[in-house]
Design a protein that fits this description.
Number of strands: 10
Radius of gyration: 18 Å
Helix content: 40-55%
Largest sheet: 8 strands, parallel
Structural class: alpha/beta
Shape: globular
Strand content: 5-15%
């Protein structure tokens, strides 16, 4: 597969944004706020089938809030997952491409509306195609444990992800976002796939963490990043969907372990019960806390900052406001 792209696209955006670009926030969270019922193994990707207009609406809400990067609705969208819903391979491929198309259409519509305004403070957003972990497809919470079982090896993970990655690349995103990765093995699978498929679209790999110190598998981030650092196909590394109170120390840790851009988009701090499929009542970061923290995260070295589960356009507006005031 031959893909032509600018490998400095992500770095260019960060520079235009004054050193720290803003990623969007919780996608499924916002879909549910609008009434979408997505308690399904496809999660937010169910709306690719049921309500694509709502997906575009949510993208527009995050752009209006100040997001510099839109992440597509494909996190839990896989060809086996679509097949389990009775769809053919061709229909699954169409929906994967649609996830990118909807984000691009929203970005272009928004940019066409604001670019002629001489006082606007927006950047032309980039679209990142989301590739969730194998655990996200299993929908059993294993993206937060990294325990895929003895039968899951490197080749199985590459076989699982390869076709989806090919289809998403063909759809023409600006970036690739490998999200909520729980172990070194899966990160290695993505690095090798980028090489084997000769993909030159800028990408990031984000890990999850449950203890604030290591990957969910128990492997150290030093182990994980040593392998990623050898690849020129990965432009940024970081953490997503972890509690925000872990982020400050993890930025400091990553800053010592890599020269790549550092990206953080934590959840609200609430706890997901993967058995009951619900969020448990718990202390969470309010928008004003994200606003204060975003400044600190940027000062410590984060180049891309946003939100994950249970954050909203209001959260991203607060982050964008404080970071753009620094420009």
């Amino acid at each position: 597969m031959r893909v032509e792209s600018t490998t400095t696209l992500l770095e260019d955006l960060v520079e235009k944004a004054g050193g720290s670009a803003v990623i969007d926030g919780g996608f499924a969270t916002q879909l549910e706020r609008h009434g979408a019922a997505i308690n399904n193994p496809l999660w937010s990707a169910l709306c690719l089938i049921k309500d694509p207009d709502l997906i575009k609406r949510v993208h527009l809400e995050y752009l209006e809030a100040g997001a510099d990067v839109l992440i597509t609705s494909s996190y839990q969208a896989t060809l086996p997952g679509f097949a389990s819903q009775g769809l053919s391979i061709e229909e699954g491929e169409f929906l994967l491409k649609k996830s990118v198309k909807l984000a691009v259409e929203a970005r272009d519509k928004f940019w066409d509306a604001v670019k002629s305004n001489p006082v606007h403070r927006y950047n032309r957003a980039l679209v990142a195609a989301s590739i969730g972990s194998y655990g996200a497809y299993l929908a059993d919470g294993s993206e937060y444990s990294g325990l895929y079982g003895p039968d899951v090896n490197l080749e199985k993970l590459k076989d699982f992800h390869r076709h989806r990655l090919q289809v998403l690349v063909e759809a023409g995103p600006d970036l690739l976002a490998f999200e909520t990765i729980p172990n070194k093995l899966e990160a290695k699978a993505f690095v090798e796939l980028l090489e084997e498929e000769n993909i030159n679209i800028p990408s990031w790999i984000c890990f999850s963490t449950v203890d604030g110190e290591n990957a969910p598998s128990g492997e150290s981030f030093q182990e994980c990043l040593e392998m990623i650092n050898k690849s020129n196909k990965v432009n940024a590394v970081g953490i997503n969907c972890a509690p925000p109170h872990f982020i400050e120390s993890l930025i400091c840790k990553f800053k010592k372990l890599t020269e790549k851009l550092i990206i953080v988009y934590p959840n609200s701090g609430e706890v997901w019960d993967c058995r009951a499929k619900r969020w448990l009542p718990s202390t969470c970061f309010a928008d004003d806390k994200f606003e204060m923290s975003a400044t600190r995260w940027h000062e410590l070295g984060a180049s891309l900052i946003g939100g994950c589960c249970r954050t909203t356009p209001s959260t991203i507006r607060a982050i964008s406001k404080v970071l753009k005031e620094r420009e």
